[in-house]
Write a structure and sequence with these properties.
Length: about 190
């Protein structure tokens, strides 16, 4: 296990940015338990699925005293498909912290899967590079972060953002995120 239980707790208490909390928390849980794969289900759908592990693994319930939030299934890395007793204890403990994090902020429970974001971006009139920039904005990246990750200048990223705003009829990042959330909600309604 590459993280101590205390380091994991510290990471699970970092609730902001809310948009990346679920993916950051899953990475933390994987690091502390040694899991090879993870499946996170909430409201009857997968928020995250990576079934790289083997065997049955373990299923943990995400819950608070007030409500059940979903399930987290961890797949083992070894050939047996089972976790050690210590890894099981750690998994149960970090899952309780993760549940509390999800319960504290309602925005955390509405995290989008990569598939959801891709579907939203494919439905917009944006170029490939513009979709990349929007995807990074949705994930909570700053202009500087996007510039560093894409090897563009900040000025170029700002130019892309102006084009994106014009094409989508929005004037700010907040409006962009609201538009993405509205589109996401209408796509979910149509699918149900």
């Amino acid at each position: 296990m590459s993280l101590t239980i205390f380091e994991a707790a510290e990471r699970l208490f970092e609730l902001e940015p809310a948009e990346t909390y679920v993916s950051r928390s899953i990475a933390t849980i994987v690091a502390v338990t040694g899991a090879k794969g993870v499946r996170l289900r909430k409201d009857g759908r997968d928020l995250h699925a990576d079934r790289a592990g083997v065997g049955d693994g373990m299923t943990l319930t995400l819950k608070t005293a007030q409500a059940q939030l979903g399930t987290l299934h961890l797949y083992a890395a070894d050939g047996s498909g089972h976790f050690s007793e210590e890894a099981g204890r750690h998994a149960r403990w970090v899952t309780k912290l993760f549940s509390q994090g999800l319960a504290v902020n309602p925005r955390l429970g509405r995290a989008k899967t990569e598939v959801d974001v891709k579907a939203l971006l494919d439905a917009t009139p944006l170029t490939t590079r513009e979709r990349d920039v929007v995807g990074r904005l949705i994930a909570g990246a700053s202009t500087r972060d996007i510039a560093e990750e894409t090897q563009l200048t900040i000025s170029t990223v700002n130019t892309y953002m102006k084009r994106i705003f014009a094409k989508l009829g929005v004037h700010s990042r907040v409006e962009l995120l609201a538009r993405v959330n509205r589109t996401h909600a209408s796509m979910r309604s149509a699918a149900e």
